[in-house]
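look at this stuff:

>
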Amino acid sequence: MKAILGLLAIIVLAQAGFVQKYPLNYSNKRNIMSIMTEVESKLQTRNPLDTIKGILNNFKSEVAQEQGIHDEVYNAQKTECDSEIEYRSKEVQEANSILTSANGILKTAKIIKGKTSATLDATEEILNTATRHIDMINSARKEDTQSYNRAAVSFNDAINAIDDSIDLATALAKGQISLAQVAELSTKLLKSALATKLIQEFRQPMAALAAITQEEEAGAAERLVQLLQTLRTAVETAWTDYTTSNQQGLQQFMGQKDLYTATQERLDKAKSRLVAKLETTEGVISVQTAVAQAATNRRSRNQNLLEDANDLCHSFEVEYEAVTTGRRQELVLINELERLATRRAAEQQI
C-alpha cells in the first residue's frame, strides 16, 4: 500500500501541474487519496466487493471523461496550431518570393540607371559640342556677312572712282581738268585697288593716268578711257565672282547649319527620352526599395510568429502527452487497487 501511495503522489503532482497551465473546469474534481481511504474503509468494514469496484469504476469513468475533454481541447488546439503554422509558413515563403523579385528588379533597375546616366552624360557632351559648332558657324557667317558688306562698299567705291576717272579722261581731252583733280582721282583709284585687291588690274590704267599728265599726246586720253572701261568690266566681273563665291559659301553655311541643327534637335529629343527613362528608373528603384523593405519586415514578423507558434504548439503537445501519461498511471493505480481489494476480499472470506 505504501508503494501505491508513493506512485499516487507523483500522479497527483502531475495532475496539479496540468490543471494550473490548462485550467479545464471540472466542478467535482476527483481525489484519489479519498478513493484509497474510502476503499480501505470499505475493506475493513467488509463491504461487498461490488461496492468497492463501483467506487473504482466511477473513478475510472471520471478519468476517461476528463481525458475525453482534454482530447477535444488538444485536437482543437492542434488544428489551430497546424493552421497557424501553415499560414505563417506561407507568409514567410511569399515574403521571400516578393523580396527575391524586388531585389532582382532593383538590381536590373540600378544597372539600367547607370547605363542611362552614362548615355545621358555622353549625349549632353555631344549636344554641347553641336551647340558650340552652331555658334561657331553663326559667328563665322556673321563675319562673312560683314566682310561681304565691306566688299560691296569697296567695289561700289571702285566703280564710282573708275566712272569719275572716265569722266576726267573725257574732260582731259578737252583741256578742262587740273592736275590737282588728276592727283585726287589717282589716290581714289589706288585706294580702290587696295580695297578690292585688284592691284594688277588697276596698275595699267593708273600708270596711264599718271603718264597723261606728262604727255600732251592727242590719243592718250582716249586710250585712258578704253583702259578705264576695261578696268570697270574687270571690277564688275570680280564683284560678280565674289558674289557667286559668297552665295556658294552661304549655301555651304546653310547646309552645315541645317546638319548641326538637325543633330541638335535629334540629340535634344534623345536627351528628353533619356531623362524620362532615368526618372522612370528612379521611380522603379524607389518603389522596389519600399517593396523590398516591406517584404523584409513581413518576413521577419511572420518568421517570429512562426517560431512562437512552433514553440507554443510543441509545449502544448509535450504537456498533453505528460498529463495523458499521468492519467494512464492513475488507471494503472486504480487497477492495482482493484486487484488488491479483490485479494483482500477473498482473504476475508476464508
